[in-house]
Amino acid sequence: MEKMKKLPDAEFDIMEVVWANEPPITANIVMKQHGNNEGWKVQTAITLLLRLVERGFLRTEKIGKERTYYPLVNREDYLKFETGNFLNQFHNNSFLNLVTTMYNNDALTDEDINGLRKLLNSRGE
Amino acid sequence: MQNFLIALLICSVTMSVLALLYMASTPFLSKRYSEKGRYYVWLIIILGLIIPFRPQWDGALVSVEVPANAPVSVMLIGETLDLDTQSQPFIENAIIADTTLSISLWQIGFVVWLMGAMAFIALHCIKHYRFAKAVRRWSIEITDEQVLSLLGNLKTEMGIMRRIPIYLCTFAGSPMMIGLIKPKILLPTIDLPQDKLLFILKHELVHYKRRDLLYKCLVMAATALHWFNPVVYMMNRAINVLCEASCDAEVLRDANMNTRQFYGGIIIDVAQNSFKTALSTNFYGGRNIMKKRILSIMDMSKKKAGILVACVIMFSMLAASGLFAVQAQSNHSPANTNSDERIYYNANTDPALLGAWSSDAEYLWLTWPMQIQIQNPPSFAEFNGNIDAFLEARQLYFSRYDLLISSNSNGSLNF
Fold this sequence. Notes:
The structure holds two protein chains of two kinds.
Chain A: H1 9-20, H2 27-38, H3 42-55, E1 58-63, E2 66-71, H4 75-92, E3 99-101, H5 110-122
Antiparallel strand pairs in A: 1-2
Helix pairs in contact in A: 1-2, 1-3, 2-3
Chain B: H1 2-24, H2 26-32, H3 35-50, E1 62-64, H4 73-81, H5 89-101, H6 105-138, E2 140-141, H7 145-158, E3 166-168, E4 176-178, E5 184-187, H8 194-209, H9 212-225, H10 230-251, H11 257-273, H12 285-298, H13 307-323, E6 324-326, E7 342-346, H14 351-354, E8 363-367, E9 371-375, H15 380-385, H16 387-398, E10 406-407, E11 412-414
Parallel strand pairs in B: 1-6, 3-5
Antiparallel strand pairs in B: 2-3, 4-5, 7-8, 8-9, 9-11, 10-11
């Protein structure tokens, strides 16, 4: 698969349906679980599914009359791709963000963590 | 414009000095004053940075004079003689003519500053928008009854009426609160025992109750205005640390040592878990801050609120504004008879003089006591040709001050 790109909202919603169901996925499933709520036509769902095939997120097979789709990217991998930046941004630089984070300083080593726990326990007595 | 820039620069410098002194005295202050007090003292400094203009009084020890370069000259004369503009409309015209004619260094500086500030705001808006969007996409609202009733009880206890939804947000790394208008709590996991979850929620609710996001907004505004000043970024860091530490202190108010140890353990868990997924590069900055945080969690001694510190900071701010008064225009009053004072007078933009001579006469300048000299006149004869028109206008101009105008032969006019 080529370089992954951030999905637009509509295509992301379809991927959510794909991830939530056992493959194979059909345009009908997409319509039933998402498209109808959005007022899509079946053609819209098919177009979006094919676009996801182009992007390398799905592969497609034709069984009899019906076209079926299988995910090629799992949810966790895509999540990691899409939010990886934030982990960096919001940990190393979070003092310049409009969020309050319970811990937002630089990373600690295991050694640091152990040292802190010792410090915490030593004061109990 | 240049007054604004000068006021901003002076504000930036004086507040930086104050902030650095305040930061340097942290080890001393942290023993005596509460985190909360020290956190809100920063707010005074932040407000001082946002509002660069302070009351000013005469008798400033150091006065900053705006170099009166030619393009602003006529403005100075207008201010100096304190004429109302209705009776002397040509002064107004001259000012307009001047500002359109030349671009000064100050204007360039102003544009650079403005672009920097706008870029800062745009960058952070985009960053925040993208984060908020990812949160919307990837988080699930928690509907678990137990968690919600835990939150409900805490809210009642703390007197919070507002609905604050909790979201499970696996990429958040640490529990956090987002949303200035519609606050929500994000948790990286809810797979926690109730007693731990209770403290995490309480911590976030304290942030909500103290309006820490609004505070952060002000800090961002100050940073946007003073984006060129590295000290402001150091302040950001210091404020952030104090924000969390004072929040801890509030959560643990009147708590015994066991509770404190338990809470300290939660904070260490959060710090540990936040990096399971993060791609971190820097391994050193966090340790000391965390060590101090744990120590202050364990610290049960009573501390002063820090009203004295707040007063000292406020007094220093006012004193600093008295020390550096911006005296861009006020020194050239007629009462000031310092003979070194020179006011450049742009003859080219004075409509009263347009008829006086046509070619490229440069500047007249006034010195105190009243004297007009002609700098680089085309020729005396040429000037002399229409001197009457000039003198008439000038006489009208200065007559309020009962000054006698006379001319001498060497090309300068004495009043």
